[in-house]
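Pasting as-is:
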Amino acid sequence: MPSLVTIRSHLFQLSFAILMAHELDAVRRREWEVLPLTRYLPDPFDFGVFVLAHIPLVWLITALAWGTDARARKLTRSIFCAFCVVHVGLHWLYRADPAYDFNNPFSMAVIGAAGSAGLAYLVAAVFERAKPS
């Protein structure tokens, strides 16, 4: 049976992959029209800001989450997975916005799957810490 460390690593990778798939869906669904920081930007500037903002975010997450510093790697993965859980709640909060276009089975499944994988990672981390040495 794989160790909890291995399971956590796979759950992080899964949550990361699913959230990246969600970001592809977010472009299709014009998520920048819902987000407070980009919703008032003029078209097509809003799209560019939304897409270009992902470059430093994804670079930072990947650099830290797969980096050589074990403490930074674990912290980054935990924060990212916690965000995946919170992200589900954010979509729930914005569901009534007229520009919100994620209320379809595909989008909801992807958002929920990222949150579920993130939650599973966090639960595995709790079990790993509680495991007797």
